Known about the structure:
The protein is α+β, with helices and mostly antiparallel strands and 68 residues long. Helix content is 32%, strand content 19%. It is built from two helices and two strands; from the N terminus they run αββα. The chain has helices spanning 2-9, 47-60; strands at residues 16-21, 34-40. It has a two-stranded antiparallel ribbon with strand order 1-2. The radius of gyration is 13 Å and the shape is elongated. It starts with a helix and ends in an 8-residue tail after the last helix.
Amino acid sequence: MYRELAAHIEQVQGMTVELFSQESKDFSYLGSQIGGMWLTYPPKITNEDQILVNKILNHYGSYQIEEL
């Protein structure tokens, strides 16, 4: 799911996505091997592209935003 979501977001002009590994050392066939993703927005993202990114994220479910 994470790779599919990343591919969709990277379709938006200037967006980059970095996936990071799960922190748990215990392997689970039922769990994801991806811990999450970092999104990098372009410095001058258009309002339309921002709306599109939000629509893509909402399509995949709930998410949490942490600004650095």
